[in-house]
Write a structure and sequence with these properties.
The protein is an alpha+beta fold and 410 residues long. It folds into three domains: 69 residues, no CATH class; 224 residues, Cathepsin B, Chain A (Alpha-Beta Complex); 43 residues, no CATH class. 29% of the residues lie in helices and 14% in strands. Strands 1, 3, 5, 6, 7, 8 and 9 form a seven-stranded mixed sheet that branches. The longest helix is centred in the N-terminal third of the chain and has 22 residues.
Length: 410
């Protein structure tokens, strides 16, 4: 058994070091780049090809460094993002403030005493198949629709429906802005609420990666069992998000970095973010180790379109801007379900140890460690101030998921 383990470790190290070895050889680098282009079906002119090679090498260095680490639970790959410029990568995002004044939402404040230890709505057949926003910054529509679909399916006399991101893309900012330049998830729910709670089905309003004339009034309303009457903003901490996911899917936002875009599999803990939310997705499950998220970059990205975020980490702002729709049942039965996802969680997180300690400030750097208040209260993980139990010495984890001295807990 010991010999077998040693051989497996050696094989893993050899595989992980292979890309580093390739990058040390200009000829091997060119061959690997050529194979990448063939696999991705890419072809460039001479001048552009030199630029793309530079992009590929930069991505390959990130992948090689990450995958050679033995203390990590995430694996990266040279996917379709590997040769993109920053501007091109940004077209696959779209979470921004193009819209103007926001209505004040209701805030989730109740604490669920019976929150289950883990929930996976994909296992229950209550998450639709993976979708692809393509190079249009419409993630905000996919996040909003994902936050609706599971909750709608959970209603009595309802079914899993594939709702139309295209209606939101065309209609939410009609005459004001191009939806491919970004938007906000909650304004999708506001649009529906202002239009009788409606939203079309994808089958009736097919997605195209372009903002066109709004046809919402001309398409059949697929909101049969319930209507959207508003939205709920989830409190800005991990536990509140977990409690909301326990009740159904939610739309969440975070900063999608280049590191994240090269994700392949495993439980990700991104330390490269700077603090700017730029991408919206859908949280559809959790365990004690991770939060399961459905992305909108197609099934060839990540774990068949999904990503798992490490618990006990800020996850580049994942808990700061989360919502779900406020639904009002109609009493009308909907028994026409659409296709559910076929995603199955890979069994590859054996190197992972749950991290209870966490940073409370999403922009923690080593510079913050010079200030004892920041180091212990807000940047405990970054500053190595974690102790057994998850909080710095002399503090406890309060009910709002924040480490404080006991007398300071709410």
């Amino acid at each position: 058994m010991i010999l077998l383990i040693s051989l497996l470790v050696a094989a893993t190290c050899a595989h992980e070091d292979r890309l580093k070895a390739i990058l040390r050889s200009p000829k091997a680098t060119l061959r690997a780049y050529g194979q990448y282009k063939a696999d991705q079906k890419l072809s460039f002119g001479p001048s552009e090809d030199r630029m793309r090679l530079k992009m590929w090498r930069s991505s390959a260095e990130i992948v090689a460094e990450q995958n050679s680490r033995q203390d990590s639970s995430v694996t990266l790959e040279l996917n379709f993002f590997a040769v993109m410029t920053a501007e091109e990568r940004n077209r696959y995002l779209g979470m921004n403030g193009t819209s103007g004044i926001k209505a004040k939402p209701r805030t989730l404040s109740s604490v669920l005493s019976d929150t289950p230890a883990e929930v996976d709505w994909t296992e229950k057949g209550l998450v639709t198949a993976i979708k692809d926003q393509a190079s249009c910054g419409s993630c905000w529509t996919f996040g909003a629709v994902g936050g609706l679909e599971t909750r709608y399916a959970l209603l009595e006399n309802s079914a899993l429906r594939n709702f139309a991101e295209k209606e939101y893309l065309d209609c939410v900012y009609e005459g004001l802005a191009d939806g491919c330049n970004g938007g906000w998830m909650q304004e999708c729910y506001e649009y529906s609420a202002a239009n009788g709670g409606r939203l079309a089905a994808t089958a009736d309003y097919l997605y195209q990666a372009v903002d066109e004339k709004c046809l919402g009034a001309e398409k059949p309303d697929a909101m049969i069992a319930a209507k959207i009457v508003g939205y709920v903003k989830v409190a800005e901490n991990e536990m509140a998000n977990i409690e909301a996911i326990a009740e159904g899917s939610i739309t969440v936002a975070f900063e999608a970095t280049k590191f994240f875009q090269l994700y392949q599999t495993g439980i990700i803990k991104d330390m490269t973010c700077t603090g700017s939310l730029n991408h919206a997705v859908t949280a559809v499950g959790y365990t004690e180790k991770y939060i399961l998220v459905k992305n909108s970059w197609g099934g060839d990205w990540g774990e068949s379109g999904y990503v798992r975020y490490m618990r006990g980490h800020h996850n580049c702002g994942l808990y700061l801007d989360s919502y779900y729709p406020d639904l009002e049942v109609t009493g009308v039965a909907d028994s026409n379900p659409d296709e559910a996802t076929d995603y199955v969680v890979p069994d590859n997180d054996d190197r992972f140890d749950p991290v209870l300690c966490k940073d409370k400030y999403m922009k923690c750097t080593l510079a913050h460690c010079k200030d004892i208040t920041y180091a212990e209260r807000y940047c405990a993980k970054t500053c190595n101030k974690c102790t057994e139990g998850g909080c710095p010495s002399g503090t406890i984890l309060c009910s709002d998921d924040v480490c404080r001295h006991q007398h300071m807990c709410p």
